[in-house]
């Protein structure tokens, strides 16, 4: 057991599901000094990701690792020296408790153990493939006029091998797909840059729209669509 991550072991398939922002948990000894209601908001957690990741691990017979704390505690999908590792503001909300927080302590407590475990899991695989699972909000409070109509986004940096396979398959499954939307993997891809691209491991990075995976029906729908496509990507690139 670790407070830095939750590991779901559902089988031996060489496929690792990684969900950096799957948790809204804030340890009892950390006071962010925010309204508790914000912990159900997208600034704290990728809504629907934990549930979809669990369903996919069960469906595919593989391992999933879920980040153990809210991104307001530490952002696990940031480089060690990146701005925003310890957010003091998020989508217009001030996070006062982080102003005097010890970044080094949180890195040692959460960030390092999480990434070290990912490395260990990948090292134990003969021919690994990674599925990175995130979700995005259909609207930002700080930019309410920006339209985000996509059902799912596919993100990548230099390695777009799996993305090229997945995008047409996701479209054929009836989803409106954003290629590098609503974010670009050229800018926000820290975990995949570190564990996949730096090691030549093929991966698929997806961002599901939160309102479509906010309930059990939506979560099952997305897992049923994504699972076979991830397998096709893996089998094509193994």
TrEMBL record:
It holds the Pfam family FGase. Gene3D superfamilies: Zn-dependent exopeptidases. This is N-formylglutamate amidohydrolase. It comes from Sphingobium tyrosinilyticum.
